[in-house]
Amino acid sequence: MKSFAQLMHSRRSCRKFTQEKIDPEALSLVLNAALLSPSAKSRRSWHFVVVEDKNTLEKLADCKESGAALLKNAAVAVVVTANVAENDCWIEDCSIAALAMQLQAEDLGLGSCWVQVRNRGLNSGERAVDIVRGILNIPEGFDTLCILALGHKASELPLKNDDDAPWEQVHVGTF
């Protein structure tokens, strides 16, 4: 296990994956990280749809104009959705759960990339959330925040550099 500082330096958005499948135990650890993540008032209104079927991954890759094509080559996609009536903090809770999965994936040596779904869509005006709902039979009343692409990295990306940290955006005491 890496230290948290090492994990933050090494986690990068991975958009190119090998064809190697993810070990079921590793996938279970990634999902467990989400299930153990904090949620507002412990409501845990999030739900996760795990997609490994290549045909379904290809359909999901077309849910918006750009930024989703990488799903076609992912070993697994995890669709992060929530029952919005259960919790007004569903966006925050889903974001925390998604990040927990990405950090766990990185710790296991897997690559991941966040594919934004909420407030995205096609040039025709069709909403990405509705496209994903139709593909995966997600019930009405649920909204999808993102899809996480997961897989074995096709290449290693350089570590993040502390010099790139925008410390000018940190304000002490007042803005």
TrEMBL record:
One of its GO terms (molecular function) is oxidoreductase activity. Residues 10-62, 68-152 form the Nitroreductase domain. InterPro entries: Nitroreductase (IPR029479), Nitroreductase-like (IPR000415), Nitroreductase/BluB (IPR050627). Pfam families: Nitroreductase. PANTHER family: NADPH NITROREDUCTASE, NITROREDUCTASE. This is Nitroreductase.
